[in-house]
Write a structure and sequence with these properties.
By secondary structure, the chain is of the alpha/beta class. It folds into three domains: 85 residues, Arc Repressor Mutant, subunit A, CATH 1.10.10; 110 residues, 3-Layer(aba) Sandwich (D-Maltodextrin-Binding Protein, domain 2), CATH 3.40.190; 101 residues, D-Maltodextrin-Binding Protein, domain 2 (3-Layer(aba) Sandwich), CATH 3.40.190.10. The protein contains eleven helices and 13 strands. Strands 3, 4, 5, 6, 7, 10, 11, 12 and 13 form a nine-stranded mixed beta sheet that branches. It has a two-stranded antiparallel ribbon with strand order 1-2. It starts with a helix and ends with a strand. The model has no long low-confidence stretch (mean pLDDT 89).
């Protein structure tokens, strides 16, 4: 029994006619008839009642039909899966992410993806969420990790929330703790020397708004820095910074304390164009992102949870 015989059997069963089934399969009728006869011989049972007006299934044929359909569907699934795997032997994935995610989640994702699929080229674009959505809409990116999903219109993008992450206050691990407790209020943070992000960061807008709402002004000593610089300045003891909890991964030079009154969070989402079917490589990248996000949430404890 082989797949060609099963396809011939299913076509005859559906059409009830050998001639039309042969035409559908682009076979000569004698060839199709031989396939069915060989299948019947191998199974030791007649599958069709043959008559001038058409062919109908025997009891054996009715029993075989759902099994044949299932076997053909399984074969197609295997073919499609192997084809996708073959597609991962070449190609590229263009991922956009905010700067805070590039030094944390993206680094973990790229390491896992490249280890499994080293032949795929990886391209990264590091910008704020709104710029990333513009690049996604313009066809410059396949996927984007964003933190302002409200800016993504549903008719243009498919947006999948991944994580809800707290913002925490970080200081140098070699310096005295900024508080004796496990948490610190935003008003108390305002009195500490601050390292502040560039105004292009989504995070800067969030913290500025929180300070305004609390009616306090932060004691800023350095502002306009990028993520790597902010973390390095804090490690050197210049001041404290409010950062996403995720950036503390593999940063032994930093200690963190949870922020309260209010607690500040951000939602991390993955976006892709709504009107384009993703390639096999992009599908695998999106699954890698989701799996890595789950692992990070498990490691982060109370400061991070799945969305």
């Amino acid at each position: 029994m082989n797949l060609d015989q099963l396809r011939a059997f299913v076509e005859v069963a559906q059409l009830g006619n050998f001639t039309r089934a042969a035409a559908r399969l682009h076979l000569a009728q004698p060839s199709l008839s031989r396939q069915i006869t060989t299948l019947e011989h191998d199974l030791g049972a007649e599958l069709f009642h043959r008559a001038r007006r058409g062919s109908t299934l025997t009891v054996a044929g009715e029993s075989l039909l759902p099994l044949a359909r299932r076997m053909l569907a399984d074969a197609e699934s295997v073919r499609r899966e192997l084809s996708e795997l073959a597609g991962l032997q070449r190609g590229r994935v263009r991922l956009g992410a905010t700067p805070t995610l590039c030094v944390s989640l993206v680094a973990e994702v790229f390491a896992a993806f490249h280890a499994a699929h080293p032949a795929i080229e990886l391209h990264v674009s590091e910008h704020g969420s709104r710029r990333l959505l513009d690049e996604l809409a313009g066809g410059e990116l396949d996927l984007a990790l964003i933190t302002t999903s409200g800016a993504a219109s549903a008719d243009r993008f498919t947006v999948t929330p991944l994580l809800v992450e707290e913002l925490v206050v970080v200081s140098a691990s070699g310096a005295p703790p900024v508080t004796d407790g496990d948490t610190i209020a935003l008003a108390d943070v305002a009195a500490l020397p601050q390292i502040v992000f560039s105004s292009a960061y989504d995070l800067r807008a969030t913290t500025d708004a929180a300070f305004r709402a609390a009616g306090v002004t932060p004691a800023t000593i350095v502002q306009g820095a990028e993520m790597d610089a902010v973390l390095r300045f804090v490690e050197r003891g210049l001041g404290v910074a409010i950062v996403p909890a995720m950036v503390l991964i593999e940063r032994p030079g930093l200690r963190s304390v949870r922020l309260v009154e209010p607690t500040l969070t951000r939602t991390i989402s993955v976006a892709r164009p709504a009107d384009l079917a993703p390639t096999a490589a992009v599908e695998v990248m999106q699954r890698t992102i989701a799996r890595t996000a789950t692992e990070l949430a498990a490691r982060a404890g109370a400061t991070m949870r799945l969305a």
